[in-house]
Amino acid sequence: MSDQQFNLFKFRDPKIKTLHLTWFAFFLSFMVWFSHAPLLAFIRDSMSISDQEIKVLLILNVAFTIPARIIVGILVDKYGPKQLFSSILIVGGIVSIGFACAQNYQQLAIIRFFLGFVGAGFVVGIRMISEWFPARQTGIAQGIYGGWGNFGSAGAALMLPALTLYFGGVDGWRYAIASTGSLAILYGIIYFFSVSNTPKGSTYFRPKKTGGMEVSSKKDLLLYALMNLPLYLTLAAIIWKLADKMHWLSPVTAYSAYGLLALVYCYQTFKVIQINKSLFHTAPPEHQCYSFSQVATLNFCYLLTFGTELAVVSMLPLFYVDNFHVEPITAGLLAGIYPVINLFARPAGGWLSDKIGRKITLVIATAGVSVTFLGLGQFTPDWPLWVFVTGTIIGGLFSQSGSGAVFAMVPLIQRRMTGQIAGMTGAFGNIGGVLFLIVLSIVAPSTFFMAIGAIGLLTFILIALVLKEPKGQMTEVMPDGTVHMIDISKQSPN
């Protein structure tokens, strides 16, 4: 892999070309995923659905992404990012068109739930970028990928309300959403024929076994099993919300779903033990070991940073309409400022990680999220609009730079499992989104912001005490048995 100077505008450089093609794929997947958010006021009026039903729709939008990111992480490590990203865009585009054709709330909810898998495309790009860029450039490259790709939610907020009015009528929102789906299908085909999984001559390292991550000790195996629990508890919380609060699921259906989740968790734990059964007999070679506590810490950090982004992006348009009485288009434009920050905040977080260190960047980011959202928690209806918008901008700067810093570190843990690690970390981001949106559906917005601030404080403490700066090299075994050393320090060795 080339270790040349990073030049974002050197389009003839294959790795720069791959970066641009991949962040735009992520951009479109996010636009499809969040195409409904800036149009909720239109959808609410067109289909006569309640505010509570809107809140459930927001939760459902991120729910399926939780298991999807785990599954896609496994698949991308096995099959490669080229095939996975193309498939996600094409299938996601088709499902998005289905959402645009929904005729009642039940159809909206079911299709929106399954459309959550589009958000798993993020994991695919993480693996693709890690294959093309060296450790000293991975922070800025992953930051650009994540930041510019996440701008897709802002693209939806900025363009789709205007496109809805252009089409006009009560069904204008349907044509706007269907347009994003059609574009995703087209680009999925283009992406497949435009990229490769690795630079020419490089090896695509695959895990020795599939179905779960390989860990380095029995202690890490236990921690891995425990870290899977929040994934299922979050899904259980969604079922509880739909059954006990919305009465959308019958008690029999709800308890059946709880039981199914328990069975799946037990099966996954069994599968993980099978994959790592050698730990009960012999310890793995030291040069292949890694600490799973680093993965767990990054999981909780992303729960805060990206979970905040998911929740805030989802609730802001309607929040502005209901609390500041602005028009839906104005609300969409104001809400679009938050994800726009991704254009420079995520890359900045990745760049800072490359320059000053991965850990210190995350310490600064989580502290900033905590302080800012504890401040927003003091919100009252008497606040001027510009004060609140400024507060969300500051909070967005810290949360999104923190997300960039998280994925500046994820590819430096174990290359052959980058997809699975990214999938688990990404899933925790969605857990954060669901957690915060559930809180929002129960309490006042001010309490919602306070909850984010409190989680930020706890995450700050965890990072300060547990996270370690990546140093030295990680090893991967080539197909012929030889050992390949991969530099992971933020600076290349002399």
Kindly describe this structure.
With 494 residues, this protein is an all-alpha fold. It has one domain: Up-down Bundle (Growth Hormone, Chain: A). 72% of the residues lie in helices and 2% in strands. Strands 1-2 form a two-stranded antiparallel sheet. Strand 1 and strand 2 form a beta hairpin. Helix 12 runs antiparallel to helix 18 and helix 15 packs antiparallel against helix 16. The relative contact order is 0.15.
What's the structural blueprint in terms of helices and strands?
Blueprint: H1 14-33, H2 40-47, H3 51-63, H4 65-79, H5 81-100, H6 105-114, H7 121-132, H8 135-167, H9 172-192, H10 218-245, H11 251-275, H12 292-324, H13 328-340, H14 342-356, H15 358-376, H16 385-409, H17 418-442, H18 445-466, E1 473-477, E2 483-487
Helix pairs in contact: 1-5, 1-7, 1-8, 1-9, 3-6, 3-10, 3-17, 4-5, 4-7, 4-17, 5-6, 5-7, 5-9, 7-8, 7-17, 8-9, 8-13, 8-14, 8-16, 10-11, 10-17, 12-13, 12-16, 12-17, 12-18, 13-16, 14-15, 14-16, 15-16, 15-18, 17-18
**The level-1 CATH class:** Mainly Alpha
Question: How are the strands ordered across the major sheet?
Answer: 1-2
Distance between the termini: 17 Å
Helical content band: over 70%
Low-pLDDT segments:
none
Note the main sheet: 2 strands, antiparallel
CATH fold node name: Growth Hormone, Chain: A
Strand content: under 5%
Roughly what is the average pLDDT, rounded to an integer?
85
The CATH homologous superfamily name equals: MFS general substrate transporter like domains
Task: Compute the number of structural domains.
Answer: 1
The tally of helices reads 18
What's the architecture, going by CATH?
Up-down Bundle
Rg on CA atoms, Å: 22 Å
- Total strand count, please? 2
- SS class: mainly alpha
SSE succession: HHHHHHHHHHHHHHHHHHEE
- Overall shape: it is globular
